[in-house]
Amino acid sequence: FATFLQGLTLSAFINLFLQIRFRGQVVKWVLYPLQRTLCAALDSSSSVRETVFWLLKARQVGGTEIIAAWCLLKCLAFPGYSILVLSKNGGTARKFVSKKLLPMLDRLYKYAPNLPWPEYHITQNLVTFSNGSSIEAVNSASHAGRGDTVDAVVMDEAGHGEFEHHAEDIFQSVQGTTEHGSSAFMIVMGT
């Protein structure tokens, strides 16, 4: 099943498996043109082994949801894949897990319950999967990520919170976490 997921583009994964809550109902996630463009850009960046993906976005366009879906696809498709999400503060890190990842996972597993999804466990800022993959969301302190080795780093709301005051330290710190392999990837996004 992981091999099947590895062959999917991000937009295909979203179209096949993910749903969203809209006006109190769970409905199929229909991507807006900008979201389709973002999915295609992420797919092409990861396939050509780019190491840094810069995303300057407007607020409320669904960019963080697309990034959360990307994180899920990577962790489900590639056993042992680890992602570190740096947020502007601890509250935003917890929201990434509780408001983005958890609802997507719940709906994904309910929508297609007979597929062999890996089991998952969620704590406050960490999602671990039975296939060895993980997504951890933390505050972007100047030492964030130092000493960790991950496959991807997502810098959410870069330009706000700790990013604003310690951007160079944070960037150097997380750059070291992704230098362990040719598949290392960094997403830097902000408004």
Give the helices and strands, then pairings.
Blueprint: H1 2-6, H2 10-17, E1 19-22, E2 25-28, H3 33-47, E3 52-56, H4 63-77, E4 82-87, H5 90-111, E5 120-122, E6 126-129, E7 134-139, E8 152-155, H6 162-177, E9 185-190
Parallel strand pairs: 3-9, 4-7, 4-8, 8-9
Antiparallel strand pairs: 1-2, 5-6, 6-7
Helix pairs in contact: 4-5
Brief overview, please?
The chain has 191 residues and is α/β, with parallel strands linked by helices. It has helices at residues 2-6, 10-17, 33-47, 63-77, 90-111, 162-177, and strands spanning 19-22, 25-28, 52-56, 82-87, 120-122, 126-129, 134-139, 152-155, 185-190. It has a seven-stranded mixed β-sheet with strand order 3-9-8-4-7-6-5, sandwiched between helices.
How would you describe this structure to a colleague?
It is a single chain. With 191 residues, the chain is an alpha/beta fold. It has helices at 2-6, 10-17, 33-47, 63-77, 90-111, 162-177; strands at 19-22, 25-28, 52-56, 82-87, 120-122, 126-129, 134-139, 152-155, 185-190. A seven-stranded mixed β-sheet has the order 3-9-8-4-7-6-5, with helices on both faces. The protein is globular. The mean pLDDT is 79.
Strand content: 15-25%
Low-pLDDT windows of residues: none
The helix-strand sequence is: HHEEHEHEHEEEEHE
Total of DSSP H or I helical runs spanning 4+ residues: 6
Mean pLDDT: 79
Shape: globular
Distance between the termini: 36 Å
Task: Describe the main β-sheet briefly.
Answer: 7 strands, mixed
